[in-house]
Design a protein that fits this description.
Chain lengths: 285, 285, 285
């Protein structure tokens, strides 16, 4: 029997693994600042979890009902060197971590129920999915108000998520945004009622945790392929990834099982309609 | 007098051409599966319609009020070879057809009033526009639940339509989605009231059918240019396409005709405002 | 004392500079057509403003409550040469201006309270942000109805803003669109109540005008970097731009000032929540 990975000795993160989902609770009073403790925990966690085959999904949440992650510790920036060197040739520090989150063969989710801004928002942008609580989540990317910019990927990912016009509005207007507008701008996947977001994220995390690990890895890879290759190359590579997925014994088992219980019969195929009605009742439209 | 193309001997598609619009009704009980009959009809139709100058717009709809297109026949996948070859060098099969839909100098529209998923959804993604009926359309891309992925362009087009975060949510959360959320995610052009979607699609199809064939071809080409060329190249090519369109005798006739009936007068230019008020009354906001 | 730039002798534009915001009012009866007078004013204004260090933000608005900018003067197009030359190698004319708007180290905003279409819409697409008045703004890109295409960047920017499916719907369906749908399609940043859009645009313009000029220039550059470079290159360049911004004396002053007045204390960090509540009361959700 293989020993379960233990997540101990963290300073400001608390990690609990249930049913292949790692629930990471950020608890760094008074405002969940990204300081040295936070960064150490991030590095330690990432190093551990990437080799932990028991974890398929990672959900980040906050112990503080008013703050998700405020921002990067500004005291570390006030004596920035006046001489700026040449453009770097390799990603380092948290930018490197953030990029690794994107290609990690596990799914990362932010459950945002409070204020998030600056580097905290950049942390969220590096994750696979973001859900925001209506009336509680508050989003901003306001570095420009103190003369600097969102240099940890913020200018890059905001532009790609919401387009240049809205990204410029957010980064230069330096206003706070509600979950509803964040959803409309593509900043988050969806705005959910504050009393239902926990249930929703638990449902989707557990649903993903039911997918075979290899399939999760292939789907995440397919999205990178879609984003980074030219059209034709990407479609050919997608075909190749499909062949790998379809050739897995686990997939064949699941396909046969689905056929056995009625896949392709009218009754079975109507099932999504009933699920959707249930989702509407629970989480609204 | 040139003979009209006849669309006969189809197995599960019924095709009727009215005013330069081909209405294709999919009728493949029990759940509009993509099986051999469907694929044969698709190939036959595509071969015919691409040489049919009488058709400017193609609308796909379903004979079944509960299903648009369910998905690809899974029985054809359960004995997928265990050895996967190298990445292919050319698009083949339906991926090739799907790409040809995109560059066809005709406009393709899906009127989705029922359940659509898997390969059925990939079929829709390959078309130019998608409209969904509120309360009736149900969208999913849930291959991962049986271990496989959306290998017919699904991972590619979903990522481009809705961004990686929502595409990952859809493909790994394996949940069904309503027309309203599909619209917000960019999955479909618009969600319409179920009792009005027919009228809306008829209106827009007929409106497009009034555009000169050459202009339709040039507009579709301009979108491919926008997507595939670098910014400067694309803008220069757009200028070239404009010159071609503006030099057409048919365009000059239409420009002069518009000027004759009042283009650039205040009364004429207020016309869109009145049309918009009518659209709001008919189809809501 | 440096002399303030004066904006005089304009034919159909009126320019007033207040608190680093240039308010440009378009007044070209009867329908704010893009004619020779408009184009001359555009060129003159652009030449002046790009060297005017007193201006950080430019807002375009209309003197006519029913029209923002109708479209390009069609009488100039009816005798377009029948022979079309080769693809040009350099951007010229208004396409060149439009591209320069995008990289200008100042922020450009359209406050759209009436009808806008054709070249008028292309003008708006070339600006950094667009806001539309609910019930008053009417959007279209309908060149195809007279056989031509949106050759001044319209096919390019619409495709990038709203994706190919909605861009094809707009350009080939040739229908008018409300501010609400324009927001959902990504055509504009946001739809605002008609009696509040003035206050909103004034607020955001003044908020941007408080950002240091150098930071505005760097943020705009970061968005171009995000759009045009490959992922890794872009992230490395963003890091470099961050270092430049963080090394500015003005930035260090602002960071220290923010820390002095309570940045990173719980009370200070709750501030965005209170601002957001105020914004919701003023402008709705």
């Amino acid at each position: 029997m293989i020993k379960k990975m233990e997540y101990k000795d963290y300073k400001v993160w608390k990690i609990e693994v249930k049913n292949a989902v790692a629930w990471v609770t950020i608890d760094n009073p008074p405002v969940n600042l990204i300081d040295m403790n936070f960064l150490e925990d991030m590095e330690r966690f990432f190093t551990q979890v990437k080799t932990d085959d028991d974890v398929k999904v990672i959900v980040f949440q906050s112990a503080d009902p008013e703050f998700f992650i405020s921002h990067f510790d500004v005291t570390a920036l006030t004596d920035f060197p006046e001489e700026t060197g040449p453009v770097a040739t390799e990603l380092t520090g948290w930018k490197k971590f953030f990029m690794e989150f994107r290609t990690l063969p596990k799914v990362t989710i932010a459950k945002i129920e409070g204020i998030v801004g600056g580097g905290g928002n950049e942390f969220c942008l590096s994750l696979d999915m973001r859900f925001g609580a209506i009336g509680k989540a508050v989003f901003s990317q306001s570095e420009a108000s103190i003369g600097i910019i969102a240099g940890g990927g913020g200018t890059h990912w905001l532009t790609h998520l919401m387009g240049r016009s809205r990204a410029l509005e957010v980064m230069l207007g330096v206003l706070p945004y509600s979950a509803e507008i964040a959803e409309r701008y593509g900043w988050i996947n969806r705005a959910l009622p504050a009393d239902k977001i926990g249930q929703f994220v638990e449902m989707i995390a557990n649903s993903i945790a039911n997918i075979p690990s290899k399939t999760i890895a292939i789907v995440k890879q397919s999205v990178v392929v879609a984003e980074e290759m030219s059209r034709k190359e990407a479609l050919l590579e997608e075909g190749h990834l499909f062949a790998i997925a379809a050739s897995l014994l686990e997939s064949k088992g699941k396909m046969n099982q689905a056929l056995d219980i009625g896949l392709q019969t009218r009754e079975f195929e109507l099932y999504p309609k009933r699920i959707l009605e249930g989702l509407k009742k629970l989480f609204g439209e």
